[in-house]
Amino acid sequence: MPTDDRTMTEDPRKQAKYERLRRKMVAKQLARRGIRDSRVLEVMESLPREQFVPPGIRGAAYDDRALPIDHGQTISQPFIVAYMTEQLTPTSSHRVLEVGTGSGYQTAVLCRLCGHVYTIERIAPLQAAAAARLAAIGCHNVTFAHGDGSVGLAEHAPYDRIIVTAAAPAVPSALVDQLVDGGILIAPVGGERTQTLTRVVRRGDTTSTTPLLTCRFVKLIGADGWSPRVT
Ligand code: SAH
């Protein structure tokens, strides 16, 4: 049930162009900048990122930056997707929670590397569009949820890995509670404008936290995130 016919009828020359751009993106933006996990590189070389951006800006799908998607949200920069995925050290047995489905591109990367992905999004139309895209490219090891993921998704907890793809003012404690012992959480944590990508490893009732790099994400909005701006 493809909802976007343009993804199905793209002409072969355009496909070849996207494949070239994708190879170049992997070599220059990922491998050259230190992404080492060959599975991450392979998956990102095979996934049609152009299908995850709005039709009018597909030509920019492999640019070295985040791009706007609908509802004022963004699809993350390829390097950030690769880096966060590598930091998660995913395996095929992992059950992973993603907070902030957005375009579904990060979700698709995780689906190719993990056992099952649970992904939660607060904006229902984004969730629906992402679900259609993942079905169209044959990703079926995924469960979509609609709601406030700042408090996690208790019904399927615990998770081996949790990835938050929106900026949180602090590491949401409910998410740490929903990690298995030895589980890893990656989240952008900090202010509204810039954050520090942060890795949290849970060991029993304690955690160890490592700052990774400076980044810029749209806000995590919810009970354990930012309040929605009243306009
Ligand atoms: N990984 C996505 C990033 C999308 S931007 C991609 O690359 O496409 C972050 C997303 O988080 C937005 O779609 C936003 O609506 C969503 N979001 C923000 N706060 C949320 C919350 N509390 N629960 C679930 N989703 C949230």
Tell me the layout of helices and strands.
Blueprint: H1 5-9, H2 12-31, H3 38-46, E1 67-68, E2 74-75, H4 78-87, E3 95-99, H5 105-113, E4 116-121, H6 124-136, E5 142-146, E6 159-164, H7 173-177, E7 179-190, E8 195-203, E9 206-215
Parallel strand pairs: 3-4, 3-6, 4-5, 6-7
Antiparallel strand pairs: 1-2, 7-8, 8-9
Helix pairs in contact: 2-3
This protein binds S-adenosyl-L-homocysteine.
The site of S-adenosyl-L-homocysteine (SAH) has 25 residues, from strand 2, helix 5 and strand 4.
Report on the architecture of this protein.
By secondary structure, the chain is α/β, with parallel strands linked by helices. It has a domain at 65-215: Rossmann fold, CATH 3.40.50.150. The chain is built from seven helices and nine strands; from the N terminus they run αααββαβαβαββαβββ. The strands form two sheets. The protein has a seven-stranded mixed beta sheet with strand order 5-4-3-6-7-8-9. Strands 1-2 form a two-stranded antiparallel ribbon. α2 (12-31) runs antiparallel to α3 (38-46). The structure holds S-adenosyl-L-homocysteine. S-adenosyl-L-homocysteine binds next to β2, α5 and β4.
Strand content: 15-25%
Largest sheet: 7 strands, mixed
Helix content: 25-40%
The H-level CATH homologous superfamily of the domain at 65-215, spelled out, is: Vaccinia Virus protein VP39
